[in-house]
Design goal:
Strand order of the largest sheet: 2-1-3-4-6-9
Number of strands: 21
Helix content: 10-25%
Shape: globular
Number of helices: 8
Largest sheet: 6 strands, antiparallel
Radius of gyration: 22 Å
Strand content: 25-35%
Distance between the termini: 52 Å
Length: 354
């Protein structure tokens, strides 16, 4: 089946100036004929690529190739797996993926993919049309907050994205999610499905969550076991706190590897282990005690409760474990935030509290 990139005349003009090309399967937009564009591409890539972008930015050639799904317009159930290749010497071969539910007031969420990638994208906002865009990063590059480990080796740290994309250099997919699955007392699965940094479907996370919660029968018992595991096994990382330019990654898997984190990492690991048990858990970020902070809201027996594992760890007690909320935003006076799983917060959804 032939797949064509739908690109406007403005895009074609911009590509001609910038030295960028886009290739749909058996179809070329820009740079003349198919043979001229694909002369440097492996034969197998020419046969299997669904879409391709080539850019030259600051003298560096960048390319982004999508192999799967096999159509830019397709149907999926709960998630889609993107397979492709990103080449970008300016940004360590990373490319950016954004996901947005089409035509609705939802935030978009994002992923970073690197090199030869295979990334599962979850449709967290229920049944409907989603726009998925893969960007080659141009303009401002990624900011890498590298750090040294205990042996003096340089390790890749947290990554900041500062307006590094352009609509000129993207592959766009239109996907329809057929699943209308919902988690308890929420309109969709936004607080149950995995996200880029809350990898609750990862086999390591699933196995650990099952092990930690073995013998626990109720959701409250499972959350207590997860809370105890994190307080015993994760330490607060003071070197990564605040605006440090040397900051470790704070996604759930990295926190497990590093065994230390700031509040963000505590909350993301807690959310991942909870979601792996089928317990809706929101990653919250905002203000607490007049400082930037992160914590979790969890849904237990139809009621949203607050858990602040980082605060509990610092104080060695459980004052902020399953604490009653004044609103979904938090507790008046010391927690005021929004769910930060996504790049832009959805201000239209704050579950009513019993």
């Amino acid at each position: 089946m032939k797949t064509f990139l739908r690109i406007s005349a403005v895009f074609l003009f911009a590509c001609a100036i910038a030295g960028c090309s886009s290739v749909g399967q058996n179809n070329v937009v820009m740079k003349g004929t198919l043979s001229e564009v694909e002369a440097d591409s492996p034969a197998e890539e020419q046969d299997t690529a669904v879409a391709k972008i080539i850019c030259n930015h600051n003298g560096a050639e960048k390319s982004l190739v999508l192999y799967s799904p096999d159509s830019l317009d397709s149907v999926a159930d709960r998630f889609v797996t993107l397979k492709g290749r990103a080449q970008d010497p300016e940004n360590r071969d990373y490319a950016l993926v954004t996901v947005n539910k089409t035509g609705e007031n939802h935030p978009y969420y994002r992923y970073l993919v690197q090199g030869e990638f295979e990334q599962k994208i979850w449709f967290r906002y229920g049944k409907g049309n989603y726009t998925v865009k893969l960007y080659s990063i141009v303009g401002n590059p990624l900011v890498f907050k590298d750090y040294k480990d205990e042996f003096g080796n340089i390790c890749e740290g947290d990554i900041s994205i500062v307006c590094g994309t352009s609509e000129q250099y993207k592959i766009e997919l239109s996907l329809f999610n057929t699943s209308d699955e919902k988690s308890a007392d929420t309109p969709d699965c936004r607080f149950l499905y995995p996200s880029y940094e809350i990898q609750s479907d990862n086999p390591r996370i699933v196995a650990l969550s099952n092990s930690v919660c073995a013998g626990s029968n109720t959701d409250e018992e499972k959350l207590s076991a997860i809370h105890e595991f994190i307080l015993k096994n994760i330490s607060y990382d003071y070197t990564s706190a605040g605006g440090s330019s040397r900051r470790k990654k704070q996604d759930a898997l990295s926190v497990l590897d590093n065994k230390e984190a700031v509040c963000e990492g505590y909350a993301k690991l807690f959310a991942a282990l909870s979601r792996a048990q089928g317990i809706p858990a929101a990653f919250m970020e905002g203000k607490a005690w007049n400082s930037q902070h992160a914590w979790n809201n969890v849904l237990v027996d139809g009621t949203w409760k607050l858990i602040d594992a980082a605060k509990n760890d610092a104080k060695s007690y459980t004052e902020y474990f399953l604490k009653s909320l004044d609103s979904f935003r938090g507790i008046n006076g010391n927690h005021d935030g929004t769910s930060g799983d996504d790049f832009y917060e959805d201000d239209t959804f704050f579950p009513l509290l019993p």
